[in-house]
Each structure stands twice: as structure tokens, then as C-alpha cells.
Amino acid sequence: MTYLTRDSRLLILRVVIFSLLLLSASLIPAGEISGEILCSNDSRAFKKATIEYSSAVSPGDRTTIKIKIETGGEWMFDVNVRVHSSIFQPNEKVKSVRAIPCDGRGGVEQMTFDMKVSDHVEPGHYEIAVTVDYVRPKPGDPGTRLHIVVSKTFTMEVAYIPQRMNIYVVANDIDWELSGDLIESLFPNRQVVRVKPAAKGTYWLRQLRGFIIILGGPDAYDGVGDVVKEILDWTEITALRTPNYYGHIRRSVEGLLYPVTILAGYDRFLTQKAVEDYGNQVKTFIDYYPGPKVVAKTITWYPEGT
């Protein structure tokens, strides 16, 4: 019987171990090694996204766009998400996240974009673009980064939304002193801005992007009367010059977003009486003025090619 020496047994053992290592290496499919991490590239990295946004905004608004990305692959990758539209200032924002580790479990990434709508954008429907660029190692070449870009567009309406508009009160000093506090109390959730006439006529009113209330009749001083006479007809002007008369009148004026309300009486005290008696009617008209229905919208996006 032949006995192997200790050195011979060690040599055979080393050959067997080396052979097993070669065999195991040959069983690992090409392209699955990324650095020191073993990953597979046969599943979708970007499964779906959910985008939440407001259906309508006003010029100057801040609006929030929420994006949730669900991932499902087993690659370590980064995600760059870009929201872009001509209505925003600045036009785009980009956020970057490390989406998932190389553990095969996938995950969920949520991000919020706080966007400022331009003060000067015209009403209309505008496209909003969401672009996702996700970067991962190129299969079989861990030193090379692979960019895959997918994008989605949706429409947002820019409109003058009545529920968000300021209240502009055209009044001289006396009428504002007598009635300003009451008007402000009628609209606690709106900004009430007192203005004086900037010129004769009504053309200058076009720069006021909101509801307009005028205090005083055709003879109110500081230019208020001149504005009133441009809006009312002769019968209404004559009525306001009648002793003990007061009331409220609503008129559409060319070039203005919303009808103008005039609260006036024969004198300053009857103008104050008009505010006291008809103020709630004016509030109801303004608060319930029809406009675009603003709702929160959600779209689900299943990107292709990911």
C-alpha cells in the first residue's frame, strides 16, 4: 500500500480548491459584478411614478408638485428629477437622490418641488415637463455609467382664480376712514388694499388684478367721483345726487377681470350706510364668484425603457 506524504496531501488539497474556485468563477454570468457588489440587471429599476399637482394656479402663486418614484431593480443607481415649464421662475428645478441600494428590495423616493408661478404669465394652459435621468453602472462594464432618460408632460391651467384675488378699494381719505375697517373685517382671508385714483377715467384700473370696490358717488373728491361718472349712466348719477339716497351698483368695465362694485350715497355718511347695509351682499358676490375649479390632480406614470 502506498501512503501519501503530508506534503503530497497538501498539494492535492490545493489543486482541488483551485479547481473549485475556477469552476465557481465560470458559473457567474458576465456583467453581474460591480466593484465588490454582486448585482443582477434583469429587473426594472424604475417601476412607476406618481405626480400630484394643482389643476390651476394664478399668476404669482406658489404651487407644489409632489413626485413619488417606486423602484424595483437590483442596481445601485442615482436619480435626477427635473421639473420644467415656461410659467415658472426659475423655469426649472432639479433634485437628485440615491434611489436604491444594490440589495434587490427596491424602494420609494418622494420629493417635493415648490415652484413660483411668474407674475407676468398670461392665462392659458401650459405644459409641465417632468424628466427623470437615472444613472447606473453599465452591465459588464462597472466603470461606465449608463444614463437612461424618461419624461412625462401634463397640463396646468394659469387663470385668475377669484378665491385668491385681492380686494382693491378706491376711496378718498374720509370714506376710507369711515368704512375701511368694516370692509377689511368682511374679508379676513384676503388682502384688502386701499388705492387712490391714479388718473381720470377707468383705464388705470386695469393694473389692479383683483376685485374692485369704489366708495363714494359722482361728487366724491380726490378723483373718485370722476371714476364713478365714467362707470355709471345718467339715471344712476342723478339718483346718487338725491337727498337720503344710498345703494350699491355693480358694473362690468371693459378691460377688467371682474365686475366693479360701487357703494355710495348722497353724502359721506350715507356712503358709510351703504357699506353697512350692503357689505355682506358684496362679500357673498365676491366669495362665490365663478372661476376655474381648482382641484388636486394625480397621475400615475409607468415609464418605458427602464
In short:
The protein is α/β, with parallel strands linked by helices and 306 residues long.
Compute the CA-based radius of gyration: 35 Å
The CATH class of the largest domain, by name, is Mainly Beta
Shape: rod-shaped
Number of helices: 5
How far do the termini sit from each other? Answer: 65 Å
How large is the share of residues in beta strands? 35-45%
Question: Could you name the ranges where pLDDT drops below 50 across 5 or more consecutive residues?
Answer: 20-43
The H-level CATH homologous superfamily of the largest domain, spelled out, is: Immunoglobulins
Main sheet overview: 5 strands, mixed
| Helix share bin | 10-25%
CATH topology of the largest domain: Immunoglobulin-like
What is the strand tally?
16
Report on the architecture of this protein.
- By secondary structure, the chain is of the alpha/beta class.
- It has two domains: 37-160 and 293-301, Immunoglobulins (Immunoglobulin-like), CATH 2.60.40; 162-287, Chitobiase, domain 2, CATH 3.30.379.
- The protein is built from five helices and 16 strands.
- The longest helix has 22 residues, at 6-27.
- The chain starts with 5 loop residues before the first helix and ends in a 5-residue tail after the last strand.
- The relative contact order is 0.14.
